[in-house]
Amino acid sequence: MGGHVFVIFDGTAMVAAFTAKRRKSSLSIVKFEGDAAARKVLDRFEEENELEVGEHVDRISDAEVMEWYTKMYGRGAAK
Description:
This protein starts with a strand and ends in a 6-residue tail after the last helix. The longest helix has 13 residues, at about 35-50. It has one domain (about 5-75). It has helices at about 35-50, 60-75; strands spanning about 5-10, 15-25, 25-35, 50-55. It has a four-stranded mixed sheet with strand order 1-2-3-4. The chain contains two helices and four strands. By secondary structure, the chain is an alpha+beta fold.
């Protein structure tokens, strides 16, 4: 399982840990271990830092496909 491991603290107590993959300004959570209160801490962090945090889906997003397509076949592509 790829990605980075993050931990969540509430004060000085570690209350959760999760593995996530980072894509630009988003974190895609692969595995989360913690209770609902810990998830609320993560939600507050998301809001305060303008970061999108979501569950990992094993597929390429539409935005990534469009970005690739534009680079390959869009403006300035070799003819």
